[in-house]
Amino acid sequence: MAPFYSLLSLTAVYLLSAVSAIPVSEPGVSLSATKVPGTPCTTFDHRKEWRDLTVEQRLGYINAVLCLHKLPPRDKTRAATTRYEEFQATHILLTDRVHSVGHFLPWHRHLGTLYGNALREECGYNGPTAYWDWSRDADVSTPILESPIFHPVTGFGGDGVPGTYTLPPDPKNESAIGPFPGGPFGNRIWKGCVKDGPFKDSVFHLGPGRMLTNHCLVRGIDDQWKRMLTSDNVKTMLKAKTYEEFRLVIDAFNGIHGGGHILVGGEMTNTYSAGADPLFYLHHANLDRVWWHWQQADPANRLDDVSGPTTKGGRIPVTLDFEIDFPALGPNITVRDTMDSSLEPNCFTYE
Ligand SMILES: *[C@@H]1O[C@H](CO)[C@@H](O)[C@H](O)[C@H]1NC(C)=O
Ligand SMILES: *[C@@H]1O[C@H](CO)[C@@H](O)[C@H](O)[C@H]1NC(C)=O
Question: How far apart are CA 156 and CA 134, in angstroms?
Fold first, then answer.
């Protein structure tokens, strides 16, 4: 661990580089979009767990997120006020189309790729895309808040402070806010504003749910949900024989997808606006990593195994040719384009 004073000077260096970072491509077109989907990758993003990044990489990542908070949105006709919010807005807009469907994992995989590309190409981050392997925290009895992911300097800050946030009126209006706040967990998990760490002064404009309100980063960390995220649970999931079995377990109400959202609490529990919390991307990168490991265990059969409905509760099955879209973030691709991490536009491995 570097001494505290050198952490401070590193922070200063990265802040300077963040300020000088400028967008390097045309609005709405990522540099990586110029590569043809399905062609072999020439460079790889070797994704790493947060605590396995160097301190410099962790500070670089955080400052790149803060840089996305400062960049303007590329599509100014929408509600997003920053480039960061544009990713959250895309998720809000598409929530009902990309959950409880066959392309849940493919769509979130590509969202994570686009986000990692933005950190590097638009904000000068030069490390790997990070994931949060919550099993490393769930397997031990140490309080979750002691995880390096919640560190105030080299992490994303800690818990919400009770009494510092109140949900807007009528949280039970599901069409306005999404199911969770008025749902089974109640307002209690919107504990309060995060008052330490890099995002303590950040103002978010989208959410909760589909509402537009100016608010802080809201969390409500609760150790009891660690039980959903243990490595034993992940091992059981990896035994799934088909994609159908795998996707239903990962996205079950008590599965590892919901587990990561509920453990952090607050905005992370809102299906629509969860992307306000930067941990959203590290949580989903870990879900993607579990899928990747499952695929890698039998690539001949699993790199083209996809199933499930195209719409929630629908009857039309998703195929490899099914088109998925990412408004304001990049061009449409097909489910096929997300399946093999060694081909464009993916180009990643997990360590
Ligand atoms: C619920 O929210 C939606 C979307 O904001 C709004 O159109 C509708 O009027 C609200 N319903 C009630 C009963 O407040
Ligand atoms: C991208 O996909 C969306 C949703 O399926 C569709 O409405 C849109 O027309 C597509 N855009 C292009 C350029 O094909």
Answer: 14
Give CA–CA dist 134/149, Å, rounded.
9
40-144+224-350: CATH class: mainly alpha
71-109 burial code (b ≥16 CB/10 A, e <16): bebbeeebebbbbbbbbbbbbbbbbeebbbbbbbbbbbb
Boundaries of every domain in the chain: 40-144+224-350
Could you read off the pLDDT of 174-195 as tens digits, one per residue?
666 665 544 445 667 889 999 9
Low-confidence ranges of the chain (pLDDT < 50): 1-33, 181-184
Verify whether ligand 2 is closer than 6 Å to residue 325 (CB atom): yes
Residue nearest atom 2 of ligand 2, based on CA coordinates: 325
- Ligand approaching nearest to the C-alpha of 175: 1
pLDDT digits (tens, 9 = 90+) for 281-329: 999 999 999 999 999 999 999 999 999 999 999 999 999 999 999 999 9
By the 10 Å C-beta count (0-12 exposed, 13-18 middle, 19+ buried), 283 is classed as buried
Q: Are 187 and 216 in contact (CB under 8 A)?
A: no
